[in-house]
Amino acid sequence: MHRSPAQAPTAAERVRSILATADSMTVVSDGRHTEVHRLDGTLAMSHIHLHAPAEGAAAPPAGRIPVRLDLTDVAPTPVRDRLRARVTLTGVLAAPYDPESMDSTCMEFGQGVLEDATGRTFVAFEELEATELDPLATSEADLLTHLVDAHGELVPLLMRLVRPLPDSGVQRALPVGMDRYGLTLRLEYPHTHRNARLPFPTPVHHSAHAGSRIQALLAAARRLSPTGHPL
């Protein structure tokens, strides 16, 4: 049976990217809310090690401390409603969470939840463990801001690829996301907005190849008129 190529990341891939790039999070444990903001160049999750849940554990083992990690995924470009997703991880710790500790904190994974505009999706530890980090995850912000700041005139050209074609009510269009499978544009109307997905011809396997994929989209757009018909 032939499988069509993926055009968007799975929930596990998105969670993996958010965990790898978030520079802040909220840790809720032992009745305390701790805001973690890493200002030294490290990432919020860099000192927390996730490991597999104990088999058959229906409740936290005696002496273990329940913990919840809340992370948000925010668009790096100045779009309306910049919150793209929320990630919540629950589990247990062997000792109280210490935000000042330089040692790695081991967290026994319980459950992962991704919440975005499409709804709520649960992600298991096995899914995260089997998922490779998107090669564009750590460079996405730079790629998108460069596209907006240095090549903003190309966005109207890319809109020729949007299906269905946007009507004249679009007030602004900006790139809002990029991953190994494609580019996402945010189309803003007077009172609402929607996202338009532009899949790459083939997935990106290295961040150095992002430029060639964007060029392929632009080449396809140039072959179309502003009304979406071949020239």
Could you please describe the fold and organization of this structure?
With 231 residues, the chain is α+β, with helices and mostly antiparallel strands. The chain has 5 helices and 10 strands. The chain has helices at residues 11-21, 125-130, 140-151, 154-158, 210-222, and strands at residues 24-29, 32-37, 48-51, 65-74, 83-93, 105-116, 119-123, 172-179, 182-188, 193-199. The model has no long low-confidence stretch (mean pLDDT 92). It is elongated and about 70 Å long. Strands 1, 2, 3, 4, 5, 6 and 7 form a 7-stranded mixed beta sheet that branches.
Short description, anyone?
By secondary structure, the protein is an alpha+beta fold. It is built from five helices and ten strands. The relative contact order is 0.15.
Number of helices: 5
Tertiary shape: elongated
Low-confidence sequence ranges: none
What is the string of helix and strand elements?
A: HEEEEEEEHHHEEEH
End-to-end separation in angstroms reads: 35 Å
Q: Outline the biggest β-sheet.
A: 7 strands, mixed
Give the total of beta strands. 10
Structural class: alpha+beta
Helical proportion, percent range: 10-25%
Q: Mean pLDDT, rounded to whole units?
A: 92
What tags apply to this protein structure?
231 residues; alpha+beta; seven-stranded mixed β-sheet; three-stranded antiparallel β-sheet; 5 helices; elongated
SSE topology:
Blueprint: H1 11-21, E1 24-29, E2 32-37, E3 48-51, E4 65-74, E5 83-93, E6 105-116, E7 119-123, H2 125-130, H3 140-151, H4 154-158, E8 172-179, E9 182-188, E10 193-199, H5 210-222
Parallel strand pairs: 3-6
Antiparallel strand pairs: 1-2, 1-4, 4-5, 5-6, 6-7, 8-9, 9-10
